[in-house]
Batch of 2 targets.
Target 1
Amino acid sequence: MPTAACSNTSRKSEIIMTKKDFSIAVFPGDGIGKEIIAQALKVLNFLSQKIDVNLRLDEESVGGAAYDTHGTPLPPKSLDMALKSDAVLLGAVGGPKWESLDYAVRPERALLGLRKKLGLFANLRPVAAFEELLHTSTLKPEILRGVDIMIVRELTGDVYFGQPRGVKENNGQSTGVNTMIYTDDEIRRIAHHAFEIARSRKKNLVSVDKANVLESTELWRDVVTEVGKNYPDVALGHMYVDNCAMQLIRNPAQFDVILTTNLFGDILSDEAAMLTGSIGMLPSASLGSDHAMYEPIHGSAPDIAGKNIANPIGTILSVAMMLRYSMNLPEKATFIEKAVKQTLKEGLRTKDIYQPGDKLVGTQELGDHIVKNLRKIFN
């Protein structure tokens, strides 16, 4: 898995590691959230015995579960805990149960609220094709082999937060409005972050926009180009989002770092997830100046909740990203990734990545086996 972090994040991590205590706000959320978070906590509890940091784990509710209890998807107590923590570990939020609610109190508002209140502007989504899972993807193995992409998604702008927004009635006609908006400062901030990451990888960055028809992304292209002049060692290219979507399927190995907007990043990263065979495989890190949140990129999957069949790997790899970006423990992060890879090499699979000849296991068993392999690596 990629190991790049921007210099600002690294400096902040070094400061954090002078502390003897590291607090993690744990939000299981809805659907399969509790099941996958339970496996991540197994890894964290094991690590607490192996690293020279006291891990404090505090759990609260967010999303639909919080709405059912508190009447809001992001209770003040949960937000306060997140703001006071060194990192947030999130499961998933949402589900059909709450789809009839007003947008202001739907479970997804907890996720957007956390991103906004914590100032999380950079979303990192690594996409790596495991050799052991090449045959589970719908694409040919020769197309996937060697794929290692870091998608850098801007997280606090675009249509998700732009104003005005909403559905209004006028003379019997309903009109839905969302505003796609970016400032040059917002673009410049995420661009610097992406270039720093590209500089520590293969020094190749593709910025994705729709500058031919959207003025907000015309500005995006101009600012990214300007920022790129500060990184002469990084090759910068531009690509329209529709072409990028096609190229991710046609020739994904051409990409190293993809920088893009909030909306486009949301869509492209889910598409890229299928290169790995399952969306359950992908972790993510959302970073800001003072806070960080880690979560798998998949949803709450309420249709399989409680059945012990959900894939916990994306969540466990999110813990690895936490060690790398927030705790400045890249070697220990690599240990987690090696334990996952070894488990896959041994043929253990949850239902979403199972193929004939593999060993089908449940969520809990896969989590236990990853910890077993992690223990071997530490010893």
Note: Confidence is low (pLDDT under 50) at residues 1-18.
Target 2
Amino acid sequence: MPPVNSNNFSNDDPNSGIYIPPQPGLIEQINDCGADLERIGDIISVDPGISAAVIKVVNSTAFGLVEKISSIPQAVVMLGVERVISILKTLLLRESMSALNTRLDMNLFWASSLSVATVASTICRQLNLAVADEAYTLGLFHNCGIPILASKYENYQEVIEFSYSREDGRITSEEFSNFGVHHAAAGYRVARVWNLPKVICLAVKNHHSVDRVLDDQSIENPTLKTLLCVLKMAEDMVNLPEKLAQCDIDFEWQKISAKVLEFTGLSEYDYEDLRDAVRFTIGNEV
């Protein structure tokens, strides 16, 4: 087991000392526009870099558009304000985290997040689930607590690698025992500060508690359970543990796969067919 960090969070305030990137003023400007789509498009278009990045995301395989979009105003009209703002937030979050002082390979981290997001949205289209946009956003945001904690704790990479190697699949337990908090909780705080939809925030918070959420009959939000199942299938398909923690076995998936497949109505054969369909659709993007 890796050494316990001497700067653990206190039990009274486990979130103390965590740097949460503030939501950029650009988002506030857009929110102030109300339903004025033209003004929203103009505000986003002011920054050529951000504008080009949004258009690139919109035209990616993840969104499955038949016709390519060439401008921000066109994207706003065709996709709607909420979808464009969601894309914008993911891009701005990545930009705001670029200055974090961490030993993580941030390019690899964001590449793995993009892979999960793309596969998650593709899974939704293959299964005719009407949450492809939400799944894409969740795929990009769900692990955003990892670089947050890695910037605070020098031994975070060692701890996360040990976490994914636990055969019981309890990934967050190792982080909590070392730091008094885990990346799902830190990510939940980021998602709330950035005003993501409530269901996305809850999915970020619970993405390592999927079995508990699926078993909880008091949770009446089927979208939350669906998003978590899609996310876990996407993580398995891109072999996320290997990318994040050099672990070639997904012990968490082994633990929860039966419940995930039961909830989504898939047999093991159906799941393998789904995996093949996703690979065929995405091609070399994952």
Note: The chain has two domains: 23-88, 100-285.
